[in-house]
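Researcher: Quick one. four chains, 684 residues in total.
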Amino acid sequence: MRPTIKDVARLANVSTATVSLSINGHARITKETKIKVEKAIKDLGYFPSRSARDLVSRKTGNIGFILTDGHFLKTEPFYTQIFLGTEFEARKHPYYILLATIPTNFKEEDELPRFILENSVDGILIAGRVSKIFLKKIMTYGLPTVMIDFHYSEKNHSAVLIDNMGGVSKATNALISRGHNNIAFLCAEHEHPSIQERYHGYKIALEKNSIPFSEQLIVSLDTIISTESGYDAAKELNKRGVDFSAVIACNDAMAIGAMQFFKETGKQIPEEISIIGFDDIEIDLYQDPPLSTISVPKIDMGQDAFQLMIEILEKRINNHKKIIVPVELILRDSVKTISKLS
Amino acid sequence: MRPTIKDVARLANVSTATVSLSINGHARITKETKIKVEKAIKDLGYFPSRSARDLVSRKTGNIGFILTDGHFLKTEPFYTQIFLGTEFEARKHPYYILLATIPTNFKEEDELPRFILENSVDGILIAGRVSKIFLKKIMTYGLPTVMIDFHYSEKNHSAVLIDNMGGVSKATNALISRGHNNIAFLCAEHEHPSIQERYHGYKIALEKNSIPFSEQLIVSLDTIISTESGYDAAKELNKRGVDFSAVIACNDAMAIGAMQFFKETGKQIPEEISIIGFDDIEIDLYQDPPLSTISVPKIDMGQDAFQLMIEILEKRINNHKKIIVPVELILRDSVKTISKLS
DNA sequence: AGACCTAAGTTAAACGTTTAACCAAAATCA
DNA sequence: TGATTTTGGTTAAACGTTTAACTTAGGTCT
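Model:
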């Protein structure tokens, strides 16, 4: 039988209340008592029972992490990494993370994750794009929520977001400063807020550098973002017969698909076409040439999201804070300097 | 305030014990009472409190999933997939999965996952290789355990294992039947049981096909399995100046490292060297040429492991069952036929 | 008819914490 | 000095279940 607080109390010759107060760092306890208690705890190998704690505190000690099937199954380690970040952070706090996936196309009749129905979480983290229907349904439970890498601007939630605009601006600037003037922009899922922000970052950068904007250089599909849509977008761009020396894809998957197309049509990368993606996923390194990208601090995002949750939970404030995490441009061999600007 | 069992009891005009017995399907309750209780539950939207239940039943409803840092951080989606498999299966049962990572090189003074210390799990799944020290330490808690893709043969545990021997035998046979007689075998971490099994599979296949075995074709490093060690192993093989037309690497990461080395030294794959890995991870497809491999059903393994756990937990039997999951050879462009055998 | 069993509930204790309310002794104050 | 405050603890209730032990009203035997 594992030791309980009573055993500790007995050994330390104090009451259970003293042990509890001591453990939880209450001011009322003197240093000496605390030491006595700590010794007893150590000697017995005592650890408080979670269920007993949860029962009295009316908390569950769990945080739910929700992701769409699509995002998890893609095995792009993108959201997996974010999940891991939350897990890392959760260890420092008295919480566990419970993972659940929901159908990508969540419908009215679909069931919410079991931990919601069973009331087994104190709050939820939602990563990536989810349907409005899902969001509406889950909001009826009134749980503290932090969204990650996605949010509906009209609904007010706490969120951890990527600096999409800044990232693509950086990429665009980098290309411009390396002599590229005709930079194509490939994207899909164009109604996705993040994609719009990325597109915006591209436009802003052109403007700032007084480079004329051309519709012809933009390929915006309404299919789902994927390697295939990257391939298709590159094909469409190619068909237009317009001049370009560089391509920015709205994420790495699309960039990789685009590279595939270009290679098939005999184009040399980066000699003829420079290319930059977004996300910084593992396989970028294994491309030929290695893909340049905007690196997103995925582990950090998970940690930030968890911290934000803790803030809401423990300080009882929910100010719908938004955290924008910075991104970093990583130039690899997929980008070539055409001519240095003086 | 969420309704409690008392509210249900009051509304249904019975005692809380009756409600409890009714919910848990005890025989003593008549159909009519049960219906009354169920109506009250529905009307109130009642859901039993997990912590209260756990406290009294001394169960937690959680299963711990333990992985080393190294294995998770590698972002090889290998163990991530296995984890997902357990999660999928857990949904069908009244359990949640709690994930924790431990230091790859777990030492005596390292702390066990928090959910162990806090007694928040009813059983544990351990995926991938863990140190003996860790295993010894965790076994003192006497928790039902299922190991995945690893086990110490001298300790008797339930486990879900890969058909390592069969897999490599298949690969070897496939190469032989395509005219390869000089097949190199590259591995690292040679004391790892799985690696030994794979090596064994290679030897057996040669024997069966009456192909002479040569020490010169075996590179067995004692470093950790990784892309780098694959690179190094290939280099070592190259240095020996021995003749070979095909290579089997003990996993995909090593195969990819080896391919890198061969490419750097100007060798054509598969024209000059055919190569096969093991695991079937996502990036195989993005290799140039796409890497042939032994495919492991990762999601299935997770599901199997969870089911095994349930069996142990609910049937109260622990027969130290071993499940060997079958593997499949996937031939992609990295393998070339030298000459058909008649 | 009386003894005994059975069926279907109920009562109350227990699980291991936290914490509001209480208390005694020591310190401080007027 | 006696009243009051502060300090450092203790007592006991409460959290929401489960379940062993008990009860009570009918039924069954002989």
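The longest strand of chain B covers residues 62-68.
Researcher: Thanks, that's what I needed.
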